[in-house]
Specification:
alpha/beta, 12 helices, disordered C terminus
Length: 276
């Protein structure tokens, strides 16, 4: 799997117009464009999904607003800063790509696409832009430099979430919890060397704690491995209540999600009091 980091002027402009106004200058700039070109401004809303589905071939129906933004001093500065941030993201990926590729195969147990495109956005806007069935995401976060391992983990989270695709609303919490266990927790732990299952000042959700023993089975842990993992991750449960199901470790992530949905009553039967 390869991540390509690039910049697209149209997506950068779309994010400027529809993202957070991070200064009074930006707010006034957007307000002026909206008041003078309201129809075009509103029509641009749909462009984000079209761009992410085929960024290389995107041509706007109306480029009036785009051209006005391109010609502004604000855009020049925005793009200059974003170019620098793209370089930062590329360096982060270069550092972690080998570890990510090795770990993600073991965790997902199904192949991802050969190539994904990460379109850098200005970090001050804290933006994540995605659309279903796309191998492109827009990304820019002001904390990217502070924790590079977390940055690449979060990018992978949105890539995998897009691969899993939409689910029924009644199953959304289970799927979100498993994705958190797989990417935000296990992938981060493996590439950083520091467990991220329970974050500082944050208690893990009950559902996460209920799925966790089965998640360890999915990872291929034997019962004698449980204590070291519980100590590593800060999630403790009564081992004697669980029988190792050896079929779980043969599943891929799709199958494990289906297993947890199918066995929801069994997995969630444990009361909060039974979890230490």
């Amino acid at each position: 799997m390869r991540l390509n980091f690039s910049i697209n002027d149209y997506l950068l402009t779309w994010n400027l117009l529809y993202g957070t106004s991070f200064s009074e200058v930006v707010h006034e700039f957007k307000q002026k464009l909206y008041l003078t070109h309201r129809k075009q401004y509103n029509n641009l809303a749909k462009d984000k999904d079209e761009m992410l589905l085929d960024i290389k071939n995107f041509i706007p129906d109306d480029d009036t607003l785009y051209n006005l933004v391109f010609e502004s001093n604000l855009f020049s500065k925005l793009k200059e800063d974003t170019e620098k941030h793209r370089t930062v993201l590329l360096k982060i990926w270069d550092k972690y790509k080998k570890a990510v590729n090795e770990s993600i195969k073991e965790i997902l147990k199904f192949p991802l696409q050969e190539e994904y495109t990460v379109l850098a956005l200005h970090p001050i806007m804290d933006s994540v832009l995605t659309t279903p069935n796309s191998t492109s995401i827009g990304w820019g976060n002001r904390k990217d430099v502070k924790n590079p391992a977390l940055t690449i983990t979060n990018i992978m989270y949105y890539i995998v979430k897009n691969e899993i695709g939409p689910v029924e609303k009644k199953f959304q919490e289970i799927v979100d919890t498993i994705l958190e266990l797989a990417i935000k927790n296990e992938l981060y732990t493996e590439i950083s060397g520091t467990s991220n299952y329970v974050q500082k000042d944050e208690k893990s959700s009950l559902l996460k704690r209920q799925i966790y023993p089965y998640w360890l089975m999915y990872l291929g842990c034997e019962k004698e491995d449980f204590p070291s993992y519980m100590m590593r991750d800060g999630i403790v449960f009564e081992m004697d209540r669980y029988i190792i199901d050896k079929t779980i470790k043969k599943m891929n992530l799709y199958e494990f999600i289906e297993y947890c949905i199918r066995n929801q009553k069994k997995i969630t039967r444990i009361s909060e009091l039974e979890l230490i």
